[in-house]
Amino acid sequence: MSLKPIRTQRDLERALTLVNRYYGFPKGSREYDLFEIAVILVEDYQKLSLIHDYPDPIEALRYFMRERGYTLAHLAYVLGSFEEAKDLLKRRKKLTMEAIWKLVNAWGMAPSLLIKPYELTQSDQHSHAGEGGDQC
Hints:
Elements: H1 9-22, H2 30-52, H3 57-68, H4 72-79, H5 82-89, H6 97-107, H7 111-114, H8 122-128
Helix pairs in contact: 1-2, 4-5
C-alpha cells in the first residue's frame, strides 16, 4: 500500500490501516518511517477537516491564529491596521476581498474558509449598514 494525500474517507481509512500495520516497529526502520508519515497525514487531514467545519470566517481565523500562535499584533501587521484587525475579530467589520487576499498570501489560509457569510455584532450592524466597498 502506498502513501498519498488524504482527500476522502476511503483515503483516511487506508492511512489508518498503515498506522495500525506499522505501529511498534523500531525507530529508524522503513516501517517506522511509513508509520510516522501516515500519522502526519492523518493528523493534517483531521486538522483541515476541523477547520472546514467552522461556522464562519471569524471562527476559522481565530482557530488558525490560535494553532499557529498568532496574536492580534500579527493580524494587524498582515492587514496593515490594528483597528481593522480588532474590528474583524470583534465582528464590527466584515472581511473585505483585500483582507482575504492578504490572509491567503501571508498565512496561506484557504480562501474558502474566509468567504462564507457571517453576521456582525448586533450593536454595530446598524452603524455599518449601507456602507459600500468590496465586503463579503
